[in-house]
Write a structure and sequence with these properties.
Elements: H1 2-15, H2 18-38, H3 54-78, H4 94-121, H5 144-167, H6 182-203, H7 213-251, H8 254-267, H9 280-308, H10 311-335, H11 344-354
Helix pairs in contact: 2-9, 3-6, 3-9, 4-5, 4-7, 5-7, 6-10, 7-8, 7-10, 8-9, 9-10
């Protein structure tokens, strides 16, 4: 009974916070405006949901947030007896935290613009936090070189450079990269990973089970490596290791910090390949569905990091495997045209050194999706 009262009290206090009230109002308003503006049609290139009706896509987007709220409840339940790290104490004084936050946001904007320029200059799509075709597939061709370049660009620009810059002044613990309770961290990782994996497979896509054993043998580690470099580490370092403690120092509010983490994660995907900005209507719908798609995941990543003080928890529990390995392995198998496992070792080294030769019939260069 005391636990139930405590949860009710916490929920009541949460709803009294202006940042939470603002999110609720804006979320409802966004749904209403989407219905009015879309006229029952969405302009996005998302093949995996192309046959779904407008109503079902909108409902599914809202159900995603409901699932995230359930995961937040599970996270609080699993961490209720542990000592919660004081993340604000890991950030510098407010004035310095403000300068570093503004510096990193400006750097991130410059990196996004550079990603647009480089991607388009090479004849590809702009580099976002997701490779073209991620989660939803694409009707356009994704080059093998594009996938590898995207991963290396994001890894260097959003992970390596910021980490090296801030590591000179702050320890890994101050950057949320060191566990303070490994046993509880592993418990949270296991629980969230299992729940999210089941949700992803049963609600989004189970096509990974249509792949052959050979395709899985090569496709799974290749997908893991590409997405770990291209989005998992960049997200973890840029947002949850560096920005999140500074958000908490500046706002003094756990809820507002979690919300800002969700907003930042959403904006990092603003140039995802499925978005359309050719008209005011398409741009509004793109922004709305970006928030429907990414705000919830960004929110649970924030909560997992705030409750454990360890950014690795969200990276493993709610990013690297679910969704990317589970959902995107078929996409990477198509991009690299992986057919069977014979000659895999020989193919890998030939591709690495010479750019995608067709060795032993294992892989054909620059395959289309």
């Amino acid at each position: 009974m005391n636990t139930q009262l405590s949860l009710q009290r916490r929920f009541g206090l949460l709803l009294r916070q202006r940042s939470v009230q603002a999110v609720v109002v804006l979320w409802v308003l966004a749904n209403v405006l989407v219905i009015v503006v879309a006229h029952g049609r969405l302009p996005f290139d998302r093949p995996t949901v192309a046959d779904a009706s407008f109503a079902s896509q909108l409902v599914f987007a809202n159900l995603g947030l409901v699932e995230v709220i359930a995961l937040i409840a599970v996270t609080y339940l699993l961490t209720r007896r542990r000592s919660i790290p004081d993340m604000a104490a890991r950030a510098p004084a407010r004035a310095q935290a403000r300068r570093e936050t503004l510096l990193l946001i400006a750097y991130g904007l410059l990196a996004q613009v550079s990603g647009v320029v480089i991607g388009m200059a090479l004849g590809w799509r702009p580099f976002s936090f997701h490779l073209a075709g991620t989660l939803y597939g694409t009707h356009e061709q994704v080059a093998q070189a594009e996938a590898v370049t995207w991963a290396f660009y994001n890894l260097i620009v959003y992970a390596v450079v910021p980490y090296l810059f801030f590591r000179r002044r702050y320890s890994n613990e101050q950057l949320n990269l060191k566990s303070s309770n490994r046993r509880n961290d592993l418990l949270v990782i296991a629980a969230i990973l299992v729940i999210e994996s089941l949700v992803e497979v049963f609600s989004l896509s189970s096509s990974i089970f249509d792949l052959s054993a050979g395709q899985l043998l090569l496709g799974v580690p290749l997908t893991f490596a590409l997405y770990f470099a291209g989005t998992v580490l960049p997200t973890m370092i840029f947002i949850y290791a560096i920005l999140l403690p500074r958000y908490l120092k500046l706002t003094g509010s756990i809820a507002t910090t979690a919300i800002l983490g969700g907003v930042t994660y959403t904006l990092a995907h603003a140039l995802d390949a499925w978005t359309v900005y050719t008209s005011a209507q398409a741009a509004f719908l793109s922004v709305a569905f970006l928030f429907f798609q990414y705000f919830g995941p960004g929110l649970i990543k924030s909560v997992l990091t705030l409750r454990t003080g360890n950014a690795w928890v969200h990276a493993i529990a709610y990013h690297a495997v679910a969704p990317h390995v589970l959902i995107d392995t078929p996409h990477i198998v198509r991009v690299f045209n992986i057919r069977w496992v014979a000659g895999v070792k020989r193919w890998f080294w030939m591709w690495f050194w010479f750019g995608g030769f067709d060795v032993g019939g294992v892989v054909a260069p620059q395959s289309s999706v």
